[in-house]
Structure formats: structure tokens, C-alpha cells
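I am hoping you can look over what I have pasted underneath with an eye to the fold:
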Amino acid sequence: MSVAVIGVSNPVGEAIAATLRDTPWVGQVLAVDSTRTTLPGVRWHISDLSDPVVTERLTGVDVVVNASLDLSPDTPPRDRATRNRFITESITRAVVAAGVARVVHIGSAMVYGARPDNLVPMPEEAPAAARPEGVPGDLLMAERVLHALTAGTGTALTVLRPAAITGPGVDTLVSRHFAAPRLLQVRDGGMRWQFCHRDDLATAVRAVLDPSRAETLDGVLTCGSAGWLTPHEVATACGLRRVELPAGLAFSTAERLHRAGVVPAPASELAYVTFPWVVPSTRLLGAGWRPRYDNMTAFQALLESIRDENALAGRRLGRKDATVAGAGAAGATLAVLGAAAFVRRARRLRGL
């Protein structure tokens, strides 16, 4: 089997390429990206992912694994959405034009949406009900483009929707939530934390492609460590002091900050660190896949990856420069409400 992995310069794509490189029944791994990493043992093709010449490189490839989405909290949302759409369309057209038999797309369980009344876990067949904005909106868009451009072409499509990804180098709105001296929790949010280590996601891709399995794993598959962690377990493990707020106050403040341009991420992204979005990995488990990391060890990998870092309003800062830190809407909300509380206390002490 010949497999092309697109997006190898990001930590998830690199883990997938490394796992497939070491898989006996994979004859060749083609690493495709605009920049090269130090990953050995693969054949590299360096070019802009929107360049039509990618089609020529994919000729003769059996499977394309697409891990190219930019989900960085640092990328301006409009720029990120435009580039993600353009690259997804370009790659999908290249896959179809090259006659590739299968494409495996790395998405996210975020597309289900995070709500207080979500089932825990949600079934894989649940509708993708995320709001079409921010990072979840980009993920929804990519899936729709892939379905539209591969329908009726003979190219099979598998979409992997992992829980919150952790591991070395992984930088997301979830990981930044914990890069702060305080942990925001919404009262009665019902949050349950589930993680997926990048190495387990890589072995899930390998399970999808395993030629010895009779069942073909097309369509949607969820992927994550079994079960979940409670807010208390997470807070205890990370050692952060919790700040609990009513949902209405937290979300209304985050929305005002977004409209004012203080935080680039929409307030809706706050839901993903507030309400549950746990998934069951039903089909992967039925196919014999087993995650190596449980939720606690996957979470500890997240904590290790953010050690000695802070994030103010979703942007990385050194510890000496950060007095109040957090992830996007969550961090800015805590900062503003904390400052307001300080002012109120000061006024009371002065008798104002």
C-alpha cells in the first residue's frame, strides 16, 4: 500500500506518517506539505498545498490521509477559514483527479457541538450540529467539501472525529484552556473531559487502512480514550484553582469581548471547555483498535506540552509577561470579570 499524508509539518500529521512508515504492510509513505520536518524514512514532496501539481504527486497513491487543516488559535479566523476552504477543495480535487481509491480525513468531534444536554457519550451517528463559526465552523466546512467533491467519484471517504487531541506540539483552544493560573468552570455545565492522544489517533488511521480486516471502515468514525474525566479530576490533576461562573455571565461577557475585537475567537468556542462532547469510538473498537492512553495519561501529556507557557486571550506568552492568562474567550472572560470584581471590592473598601 502506498499512502500520502498531507500536513506532515503539524504534530498530528507527523505522528500519522511515522506510524504508517513503521507499518509492515505500508510500502511507501509520501509526506506532502509546504515545509519539511526532520521525520526520516518517508518520501517528501514540498509545495504549497493549493498547487495543482499535487495531483501529479498523488498518481499511483492508494490512500491519502488529510491532516492539513489549520486549527491554530493564533491564525486570524477569517484568514484561517478562507485558507482551509481553499486547501480542502484543492486537495480533494487532486485526490479525485489522481484516481486515489480512499481518502481519510482528520476532523474533530467538535462538529457535534458542545451543549449541556448532550448525551455522554454521543452516538457516532448523531448529527453534526456545531455552530458554523470559528474552529468548529472550519471543521464542518471541510467535511462538507469532502463529501460534495468525492460523491459519485469512486473515491471512498473516511472521516475520523477525535476527541480533544493531546501530545507533544499539539496547540489547540482546549490545550490553551489549561495554560492559565485559573481554570474557568461554568456552573451546572455538566462538563466531562475526554481526550485523544495524537499517537492513538495515528493507530486509529492504521486500523482504518488495515487490509487484513474484512469490514471497510468508510463514513464517520469517532476516536478517543474510553470514558471521561470529571471537572474535579481535571482540576486536581492540573493543580489550577477553579473560578466558577454562571453560564449566562460567562457567555455574555465572552460575546462582548469578541464583538469589541479583544478576542478573535467567537464566544461559541467557550462551549468546548464548558459543556460535554464525549464520543464512543464504537466502530473503531469493534474493528479491534485500542487506545494506549487513558484520559488521565492523555491529559497529563497535554499538561506536559504546555509546561512553562501561558496564553493570554488565546495567544502564547512567557510566564514573566503574563499576569492573567487563559484560552481565547475563557481567558479573556476571566480577566475582565476578575478585574471588575477587584474594582468592586476596592470601591467597597473606600466606601464609594
